[in-house]
Amino acid sequence: MTDISYVQQLRKPTPEDPLRILMSACLAGTACGYDSTANGTYPSALKLLGYDNVSVVRFCPEDYSFGTPREMCDIHGGTGIDVLEGRARVLTDSGIDWTDGMIRESEKMLEVAKNDGIELAVLMDISAACGSQVIYSGNRFAENKVYQIGAGVCAAQLIKNGIKVISQRDYASLELLYAKIDPSHAIDATKIDHHETEWYKSYFGT
Ligand code: SF4
């Protein structure tokens, strides 16, 4: 679940002192997805690239450890925090164990965030690395693929170290963020975060 009050309390940035946002590189349009695409187009995140008082740092953790293109991977036996704490593994769809590389890339992402004084991360949900609200439980290509609530390995590393993360689907949080950046932005109060959607509530029974 996102910490919407954190977004509400973010400072008002200026071009001289921009808000420092870490973004999944694919969300910013970099073709770093497993298949050398940008995993689709998400205007909710791309919009953040258009402000002169926002400094976006792009980082693709999986590209850092495994290059592009590469296999798909998912977490088996838990969530990202379980991987970091040794209770779950990351396997590619062909069964190769990527756990160590995923932990390394999460540490690199944290280093980037700290070095750049990141104030908020906007990451691609569902990814075994960048997901923050929902990820797959086990292989996403399984006949009965299963979702779970939780963060991927890199998002979990950031969250564990105090860096707030929202996803491109957290539309209510993003509305608050746009308003913080652009005083002329009128907040659309009908927008909701991912954990408030009907799909999420009915799938997870919350
Ligand atoms: S690891 Fe993150 S930044 Fe890289 S392609 Fe996957 S979701 Fe995008």
Task: Explain what you see.
There is one protein chain. With 206 residues, the chain is α/β, with parallel strands linked by helices. It has one domain. Helix content is 31%, strand content 16%. The chain is built from eight helices and eight strands. The protein has helices at 4-8, 43-46, 61-66, 80-84, 99-115, 153-160, 171-181, 198-204, and strands at 19-24, 54-59, 73-76, 89-92, 120-123, 134-136, 147-149, 165-167. The strands form three sheets. The chain has a four-stranded parallel β-sheet with strand order 2-1-5-8, with helices on both faces. Helix 2 links the parallel strand 1 (19-24) and strand 2 (54-59). Helix 5 (99-115) packs across helix 6. The longest helix is centred in the middle third of the chain and has 17 residues, at 99-115. The mean pLDDT is 97. It binds iron/sulfur cluster (SF4).
